[in-house]
Design a protein that fits this description.
Oligomer: single chain
Pfam families: LacI (PF00356), Peripla_BP_3 (PF13377)
CATH superfamily of the largest domain: Response regulator
Number of strands: 12
Largest sheet: 6 strands, parallel
CATH topology of the largest domain: Rossmann fold
Distance between the termini: 76 Å
Radius of gyration: 24 Å
GO molecular function: DNA-binding transcription factor activity; transcription cis-regulatory region binding
Order of helices and strands: HHHHEHEHEHEEHEHEHEHEEHEE
Protein name: Transcription regulator, LacI family
Organism: Colwellia psychrerythraea (strain 34H / ATCC BAA-681)
Keywords: DNA-binding, Transcription, Transcription regulation
Shape: elongated
Length: 339
């Protein structure tokens, strides 16, 4: 076909009797456009062998149609991107971005540059940023609030900061976990987690709320600083039981990964779970149901969280009003805490 006779996006739109912007969205299979319209536009494009010039489109609109997702992983924590909880929420985000015609650029704070605004936004690498986690009060997140970069954070709302967050009700989750263990007869409950992380700090406050409600003492010696890994859950519980305290009868681990590591140590020591020590985790990752004993946990709605992160960010990109949102949590009782 002669170049003079090549179809343009405007030609496709005219044949479909829709606007150019609608035709563009339909060709990207954007769910905002009715399925019948998408089918019509895509059929006309196929009939005329029309292909979208992605490079030209980006130059014209000054948009990349890419969202960067940065996972807050700190070297000292030992947590990796293959963590089951992270994989679940990242999978939902990827699926949701695809629905709206966006690519996902995935990185972690172990490799990301310090100046996120310049690297992602000014350089036109991404139209916006989704940040998973807040780290230990990472200044890179806080500094973004004063830039033009649209971004949203999976984490705990911090009132002194002005950025938008989507996250679980961590304080309620901590309360429900410990309240459940108390109802099972536990009285001295160890807390496995690192309260330097904002979300974990909220779970620690919920832990204290439940003890206060039950008129049980808060023993700070039972707060065992633990990273988000099964290895650390195993080793920190081992060290605590061998060196400091053998009188605990319950464990609240701030992640299922930590809980699984602690459970493995107790199994190796022939300590009966749950009769001698009951355990509850946090997240409700898939393997929690299939380990032995199956793991009681606090369920986070990662599917709803992933969808909301994308929705809120796209609203920000389109300059629509947004606000932080808190997702509900619930106890999932399984064998590890059922007495």
């Amino acid at each position: 076909m002669n170049k003079k006779n090549l179809m343009t996006l405007a030609d496709i739109a005219k044949l479909a009797n829709v606007s150019t912007s609608t035709a563009s969205r339909a060709l990207r299979d954007n769910p905002v456009i009715k399925q019948s319209t998408r089918d019509l536009v895509q059929g006309i494009a196929k009939e005329h062998n029309f292909k979208v010039n992605v490079t030209a489109s980006k130059l014209r609109t000054q948009k990349t149609n890419t969202i960067a997702v940065v996972v807050m992983l700190e070297r000292k924590s030992g947590q990796v991107i293959s963590d089951p909880f992270l994989m679940e929420i990242l999978g939902t985000i990827a699926d949701e971005l695809t629905k709206f015609g966006y690519d996902m650029l995935l990185t972690t704070t172990k490799t990301a540059t310090h100046d996120w605004y310049s690297y992602y936004y000014e350089s036109k690498r991404a139209d916006g940023l989704i940040i998973i986690g807040q780290g230990e009060h990472d200044q890179r997140v806080e500094s973004l609030a004063n830039t033009k970069l649209p971004f949203v954070v999976w984490g705990t709302e911090i009132h002194e900061n002005s950025y938008t967050t989507i996250g679980s009700d961590n304080r309620k989750g901590g309360f429900l976990a410990v309240q459940h263990l108390i109802k099972q007869g536990c009285r001295r409950i160890a807390f496995l987690g690192d309260i330097n992380h904002n979300e974990v700090e909220q779970r620690w406050l919920g832990y204290q709320d439940a003890l206060k409600e039950a008129d049980l003492p808060i023993e700070h010696g039972l707060q065992i600083k633990t990273d988000f890994t099964s290895n650390d859950g195993y080793s920190k519980l081992r060290d605590h039981l061998l060196i400091e305290d053998q009188g605990i009868d319950g464990i609240f681990a701030v992640s299922d990964a930590i809980a699984l590591g602690a459970s493995k140590y107790l199994f190796e020591q022939n300590i009966d779970v749950p009769q001698k020590i009951a355990i509850i985790g946090f997240d409700d990752i898939a393997m929690s149901e299939f380990c032995s004993p199956s793991l009681s946990t606090i369920k986070q709605n990662t599917a709803a969280g992933g969808r909301l992160l994308v929705k809120i960010l796209l609203n920000k990109i389109n300059q629509q009003p947004v606000k932080s949102q808190l997702l509900d949590v619930e106890v999932v009782q399984r064998q590890s805490s059922s007495r």
